[in-house]
Q: What sequence folds into this?
């Protein structure tokens, strides 16, 4: 009894903060998403109408929403495997007994994560520049003509994906590196004695050993990439031809540019439901595979 | 997502509560007048205000400056949280929005009694931006309008002595510049992600952009079609590169290198061009009024006004500050400090303005500027307009179908609520 009371006392401040700054606003946003709260409602609350699921239906009937969803999914599909591969590759290199100056390299590869998107975006805009960009300059040696990275609707999203992967892979790399170091060394030694090649060691020891970590990293990264916002906001503003408008960017424009807070809240909940569903799906798939393996 | 959007609301509520607490503190003898400004103007206005404070002992002026990009959001959240200042600098395209919110004090009675603010001294199109549904909600501080910045040397090399005055001359000049400059350079830069160039061409037309009391789009009109066709032609003929300004690393650099010879921009770029263009280009560029379809055309009336908020407790004092900053002498000092062009004709009778040849084209065009449609949804409509134009230029959609879709979207989505409120007889 007494210990229970002291437990509540300890969690009370955290609960209070979570309640005021998370639970309450989320509930308010849910209510907001059922109204047509906009600029006119801000002027006079009589101008606000309860519209039920009208906002949701409306959004599902908006072509731009589907386009934004398509763009976001395309971005996730592009960058998730790329990001995982880059993180895993970097982690393997750092973990290799042959690597020198590990501390330096680890810091260098992690550096993009701690830089500000806005500052780095300026540099990447130069890298992507059609005429002066380093990337096109490099490609010209391979005989590939200049690509209009940020101006061509087909290339803008891959360009952002490249930028996002470079910006984020260091974070996952650190987690994977820890996972690699947790794999017992004697498994490798035993495999060596059995005459297993490096590749077979990777497939049969490293990957299974990393499975739980990889799953965690994949889920976190996926959820993060679905919330794509800063990259298009600073690099393209949704251009060209709205090919880099993500769901979150659409929400920002509806809410804080046009002040349609009802619609914006509805978009937020749709995105939440989507990420939730996909995470559940991933977890279930992983569990099913875990049972068959 | 949900978290940050709603979290913001909670924060506003908290701040509002804190502000209310502060307001309960015992008032001092001194009157505090809060004045919000944005960007460069706010950084220098303090110098002008010293004199005002000296003339008003007991008045404590608090000037808060904020970046332009955050201003709109900040003002709306301040309105929601009842934390607006006494007066502020308000971009004149925002006035209809804040008037619709009922946040602004009508100023006609103040102007009627004033012997400083005289309507006939202001450029008519600029003054008009402050008038919403017959009420006056602002007094213009400084003005801008977009016009043509051009390279004299490139125009001369293409065989033209003077800048174009109408669209036919402009077409010939652009074709000639493109010929003389070669395939990898262009005659004009029209950033595809900015609505202003197309808007300025469109606003010259006799057809209004919105009709039925600002409740329906009118983009399928002959006038807008003419403007769009001219705009699209520049890309089809390769006079303009199909680019956004995020794709141009540095506009001044490219203008200096002759990547393009015409650029439609505003008075703030006079100073930038003087500072940033290479020395061998200085003296070889100029400004000219925007060419119209037939003869000199106008442009959209831009700039900032002073607005007094209805919730202010010191409206008379706020008005005195507006009057002070509207004096001809202060307008001229303000020009010297910022390069912002004065809104009053008599303030243009000033040596510094006369000796700066780049301002002359602005003086000329200011007599012909028109306000943009005065509905709160205007900025969104202008964005949609530009997206339609971009689809035509980049996506190859036909102008007919793009404009039909544009009018439909404006009528069915953007202006639907305004129309239904007006139909109910409610003041939007």
A:
């Amino acid at each position: 009894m007494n210990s229970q009371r002291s437990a509540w006392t300890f969690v009370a401040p955290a609960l209070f903060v979570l309640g005021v700054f998370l639970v309450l606003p989320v509930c308010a946003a849910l209510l907001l998403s059922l109204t047509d709260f906009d600029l006119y409602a801000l002027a006079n609350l009589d101008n606000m109408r309860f519209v039920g699921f009208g906002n949701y239906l409306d959004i599902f009937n908006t072509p731009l929403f589907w386009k934004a969803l398509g763009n976001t999914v395309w971005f996730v599909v592009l960058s998730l495997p790329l990001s995982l591969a880059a993180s895993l590759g970097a982690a393997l290199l750092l973990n290799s007994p042959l690597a020198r100056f590990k501390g330096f390299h680890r810091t260098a590869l992690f550096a993009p994560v701690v830089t500000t998107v806005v500052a780095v975006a300026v540099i990447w805009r130069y890298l992507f520049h059609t005429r002066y960009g380093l990337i096109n300059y490099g490609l010209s040696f391979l005989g590939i003509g200049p690509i209009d990275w940020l101006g061509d609707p087909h290339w803008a999203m891959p360009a952002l994906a490249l930028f996002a992967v470079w910006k984020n892979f260091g974070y996952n790399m650190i987690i994977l590196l820890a996972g690699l170091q947790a794999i017992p060394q004697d498994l490798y030694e035993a495999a060596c004695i059995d005459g297993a090649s490096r590749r077979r060691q990777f497939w049969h020891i490293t990957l299974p050993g990393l499975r739980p970590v990889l799953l965690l990293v994949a889920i976190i990264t996926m959820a993060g990439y679905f919330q794509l916002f800063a990259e298009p906001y600073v690099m393209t503003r949704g251009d060209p031809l709205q090919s880099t408008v993500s769901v979150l960017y659409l929400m920002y424009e509806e809410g804080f540019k046009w002040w349609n807070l009802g619609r914006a809240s509805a978009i937020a909940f749709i995105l939440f439901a989507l990420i939730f569903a996909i995470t559940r799906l991933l977890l279930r798939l992983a569990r099913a595979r875990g049972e068959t393996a | 997502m949900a978290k940050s959007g709603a979290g913001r609301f909670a924060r506003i509520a908290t701040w509002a509560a804190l502000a209310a607490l502060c307001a309960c503190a015992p008032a001092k003898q001194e009157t505090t007048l809060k004045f919000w400004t944005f960007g460069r103007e706010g950084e220098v206005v303090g110098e002008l205000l010293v004199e005002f404070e000296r003339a008003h002992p007991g008045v404590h002026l608090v000037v808060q400056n904020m970046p332009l990009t955050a201003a709109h959001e900040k003002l709306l959240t301040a309105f929601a949280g009842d934390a607006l200042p006494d007066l502020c600098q308000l971009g004149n395209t925002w006035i209809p929005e804040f008037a619709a919110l009922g946040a602004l004090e009508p100023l006609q009675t103040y102007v009627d009694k004033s012997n400083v603010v005289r309507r006939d001294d202001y450029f008519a199109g600029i003054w008009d931006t402050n008038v919403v549904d017959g009420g006056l909600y602002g007094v213009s501080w400084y003005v801008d309008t977009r016009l043509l910045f051009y390279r004299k040397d490139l125009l001369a090399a293409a065989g033209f002595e003077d800048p174009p005055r109408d669209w036919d001359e402009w077409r010939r000049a652009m074709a000639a510049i493109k010929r003389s400059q070669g395939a990898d350079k262009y005659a004009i830069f029209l950033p595809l992600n900015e609505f202003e160039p197309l808007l300025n061409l469109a606003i010259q037309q006799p057809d209004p952009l919105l009709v039925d009391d600002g409740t329906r789009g009118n983009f399928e009109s002959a006038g807008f079609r003419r403007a769009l066709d001219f705009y699209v032609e520049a890309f089809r003929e390769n006079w303009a590169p199909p680019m956004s300004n995020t794709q141009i690393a540095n506009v001044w650099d490219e203008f200096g290198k002759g990547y393009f010879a015409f650029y439609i921009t505003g008075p703030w770029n006079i100073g930038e061009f003087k500072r940033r263009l290479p020395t061998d280009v200085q003296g070889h560029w100029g400004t000219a009024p925007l060419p119209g379809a037939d003869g000199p055309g106008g442009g959209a009336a831009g700039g900032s006004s002073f607005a007094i908020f209805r919730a202010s407790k010191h409206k008379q004092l706020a008005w005195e500050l507006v009057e002070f900053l509207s004096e001809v002498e202060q307008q001229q000092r303000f020009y010297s400090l910022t390069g912002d062009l004065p809104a009053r004709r008599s303030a243009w009778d000033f040596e510094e303005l006369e000796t700066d040849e780049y301002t002359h084209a602005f003086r000329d065009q200011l007599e012909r500027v028109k306000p943009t449609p005065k509905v709160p949804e205007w900025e969104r409509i202008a964005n949609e307009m530009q997206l339609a134009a971009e689809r035509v230029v980049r996506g190859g959609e036909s102008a007919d179908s793009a404009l039909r879709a544009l009018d439909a979207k404006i009528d069915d989505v953007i202006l639907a609520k305004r129309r239904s409120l007006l139909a109910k007889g409610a003041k939007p």
In short: The mean pLDDT of chain A is 87. The domain at 54-292 of chain A is CATH 1.10.3720.10 (MetI-like fold).
